[in-house]
Specification:
Layout (H helix, E strand, L loop, with lengths): L1 E6 L21 H17 L5 E4 L3 H14 L6 E2 L9 H13 L4 E6 L3 H11 L13 E5 L9 E6 L1 H6 L2
Parallel strand pairs: 1-4, 2-3, 2-4
Antiparallel strand pairs: 1-5, 5-6
Helix pairs in contact: 1-2, 3-4
């Protein structure tokens, strides 16, 4: 199974007056523009996902919606608390293990740091304390073959900046 880990694009800063909570921070116009362009490259590299699952936080949701649009994906976008930045990466790995056991070919997860970097480290070497951080708008792909070990092989890791230049 191919797993795509996608970090949300550039988001608005917290409002100093507390009017904007962290969970409600949207993508900026620049964040939308840059991620949409990078997604064109990601779409060429991805095997069409069986499922796209996002953190429910606004910036991740918006990023996932852009990905769905660029992929012209007709499935139902799903949301999981297992992908918020404070969740343990083992919860997301357990979710992926279920997908692998159900013979999914490809799953895309959209979320945040430090969660995704810790999940990537866990999927590459079996340890969640050896993170591989993802920059904003970045996409990494891991190939998993055995649900017993859940340690896979890195297929690619591409920054949003480089992906935009490849369009």
């Amino acid at each position: 199974m191919l797993v795509y880990l996608v970090r949300h694009g550039i988001a608005a800063d917290l409002a100093p007056d507390g009017a904007l909570t962290d969970a409600d921070r949207p993508l900026t116009d620049l964040g939308i523009e840059r991620f949409r362009k990078a997604s064109e490259t990601y779409a060429r590299l991805m095997v069409r996902p069986d499922r796209i699952i996002s953190s429910p936080l606004v910036r991740a949701r918006q990023t996932a919606e852009i990905l769905v649009d660029v992929l012209d994906w007709d499935g139902e976008l799903e949301f999981s608390e297992d992908l918020v930045y404070s969740a343990t990466p083992t919860r997301a790995a357990t979710m992926l293990q279920g997908e692998l056991l159900n013979d999914a070919d490809s799953v895309a997860l959209v979320g945040h740091e430090p969660h995704l970097g810790s999940l990537l480290g866990l999927l590459l070497n079996g340890v969640d304390r050896a993170p591989v951080p993802l920059s904003k708008g970045m996409c990494a792909s891991v190939e998993l073959k055995e649900p017993q070990s859940m340690v896979g092989k890195l297929r690619f890791a591409l920054s949003q900046k480089i992906a935009r230049k490849m369009v």
